[in-house]
Amino acid sequence: MRTRLTGRGRRVVVLTMAGLVVLAGTSRGQGPGGEPQLPRQGGMPLPGASSALVISPSALMGGVPAGQATAAVMPLSLSDAIARGLKQNLGVVLGEQAVRSAHGTRWQALSGMLPTAAVTVGQAREEINLEEYGFPVSPGQSPILGPFNVSSVHLTATTPIFDYAALQRAKAGADAATAAKHSFRDARDMVVFVTANLYLQAVTGASRIDAARAQLATAQALYDRAVVQKQAGVIAGIDVLRAQVQLQSQHERVIFFENEFAKQKLALARAIGIPLGQQVDLIDRMPYAALGTMTLDESLKQAYSSREDLHSAQALVDAARAGKQSAIGEALPSAHLLADVGRSSSAWDSLHGTYAVQASVTIPVFQGGRVWGRVEQADAQLKQQAAQVEDLRARIEYEVRSALLDVQASDDRVHVARSAADLAGAQLAQAQDRFGAGVASNIEVVQAQEEAATATENYLSALYAHNLAKISLARAIGLSEARARQFLGGSN
User: Which range marks the domain in which residue 214 is found?
Assistant: First the structure.
């Protein structure tokens, strides 16, 4: 708020009569007694928990498209997808602007500690009642002086000498800006996790298509054999129908998985800002790679030192603590320096210099409970934020423990599922041989095909779960952006 220091009570012109008559000039920012008013420093809201950056799941699944779709197929690796996501994902874009907003809030909070200055140019026409200022007026003489013109130009400056509340308010703003930076880095880690997960889903979908097409080729070969054997009179017509049903079933699976894969690529493209009309080729297939041993203690130590959301929450605790001190400071004395330099007169061609300098100390005496109400609110916010930090530490431990369990369990699942898929493949081969030799009907073949398809699906699901568990562990220990690719590659 700008404070105008010189005024009507300061522009005094001496006139003659049987004594001297004083002419007062224009007032700017005076109280009832004509004294300059101090700037009000308590109007700025304190930065608090609302300064934390919160990115919704829908924002993480969205993106800002960059460029135009072309006819050429775009090769896309996992590293390329992550790099694009960190530029074009909607969560990153919103996070960047939230950090800018936090910096703006910081500057607003800091303004209470910095000098302010303003130039005011004024032109007025006035009448003054001399009796209002206590000057005697002779009987029969009018107490009204004027009308007259007042022209003025003033430079007004104010600066705090000591203001504990403003100092703590500036500290709270700085802590809130720091929290926003950590929250933005955490949002980037979440974008890496979401992008890697979408990429894994898509490449798993591609593997399902390959497996379904292989099963379709097998079903086609078995159907062709059944037709030949039926024509030779070796098997009954029911075997041909059974083989045809199995062929149509495998064809339906291929159509289903191809559609799912197309939608998975669309979801990935949307999240990383690729135009949806652009054809992409996922060049990384994410084969199985075991993750090196990580102990619980090592993982927790890494998580507590690296998780950006924890650093953000701790910075908000500092901001809330400074906010409480700022509220307490409103009950403490404050000192300010005010200065006004200007020129004024009844006409612009005859301006005369004026100045005013004032150092003032404000000592709050009674404020109707407003200060202590703010202190109580700030203390409650501080305790809420501290409780959230402790809850977050517990949640981090839960996430690390869960991720470690998932990595171990999914690793075991991959071994078992791969063994089952190999056995199912051998069983299918033997069933085909028995059917070809005429010692068994194609019922065994159909059953073996279904079991092979189920075993293959279980293996692909286990492989996806294993890779997802590894990037979940990377997320849990706070290293998604730096080490997600290494985790998926099996490097520790």
Answer: 49-118+162-335+367-489
What's the CA gap between 122 and 340, in Å, rounded? 14
Could you tell me if residue 233 is left (phi over 0), alpha (psi between -120 and 50 degrees) or otherwise beta? left
Total of domains in the chain = 1
Give residue-wise pLDDT tens across range 26-59: 333 333 333 333 333 333 444 444 445 677 888 8
Is residue 141 classed as helix, strand or coil in its secondary structure? coil
- Indicate whether 391 belongs to any domain: yes
- Rounded to whole angstroms, how far apart are CA atoms 244 and 242? 5
* pLDDT digit string, tens, across residues 295-342: 999 999 999 999 999 999 999 999 999 999 999 999 999 999 999 999
Assess contact for 146 and 127: CB atoms under 8 A. yes
Bridge-based pairing of strands 280-282 and 74-76 is: parallel
Q: Which of 274, 55, 295 is nearest to 184 (CA)?
A: 55
CATH number at residue 387: 1.20.1600.10
Residue 5 lies in a domain: no
On whether residue 360 sits in a domain, the answer given is: no
pTM of the entire predicted model: 0.79
